[in-house]
């Protein structure tokens, strides 16, 4: 299978651009996954401290702030992304 087949490009030049861009996307995805894993760990620290102090594990007003932040930055898809992040970071409720 050639680079043209793999990328769907019609020229070798376009295939080269697409291949390079995909490599960068893959590297960015790896960084994003690492950041999400870090966020999950930090969120667990916050939850543990809140519970240890007698509070609830989830702070809904804080979650609303996060949803608003993502929505303002990324629009409606940002809200969905924030919901997914919150779900990952909350663990099971």
Automatic annotation (TrEMBL):
GO terms for molecular function: chorismate mutase activity. It comes from the Bacteria. It holds the Pfam family CM_2. One of its GO terms (biological process) is chorismate metabolic process. Residues 12-93 form the Chorismate mutase domain. Its EC number is 5.4.99.5. The keyword Isomerase applies. The keyword Isomerase applies. InterPro entries: Chorismate_II_sf, Chorismate_mutase_highGC-bac, CM_dom_sf, CM_II_prokaryot. Keywords: Isomerase. PROSITE patterns: CHORISMATE_MUT_2 (PS51168). It is an enzyme of class 5 (isomerase). NCBIfam families: CM_M_hiGC-arch, PRK07857.1. This is Chorismate mutase. It comes from Streptomyces roseirectus.
């Amino acid at each position: 299978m050639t680079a043209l087949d793999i990328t769907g490009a019609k020229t070798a030049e376009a295939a080269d651009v697409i291949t390079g861009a995909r490599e960068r996307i893959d590297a960015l995805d790896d960084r994003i996954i690492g950041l999400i894993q870090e966020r999950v760990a930090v969120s667990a620290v916050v939850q543990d401290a809140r519970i240890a102090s007698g509070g609830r594990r989830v702070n809904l007003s804080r979650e609303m702030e996060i949803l608003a932040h993502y929505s303002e930055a990324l629009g409606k898809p940002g809200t969905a992304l924030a919901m997914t992040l919150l779900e990952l970071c909350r663990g099971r409720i």
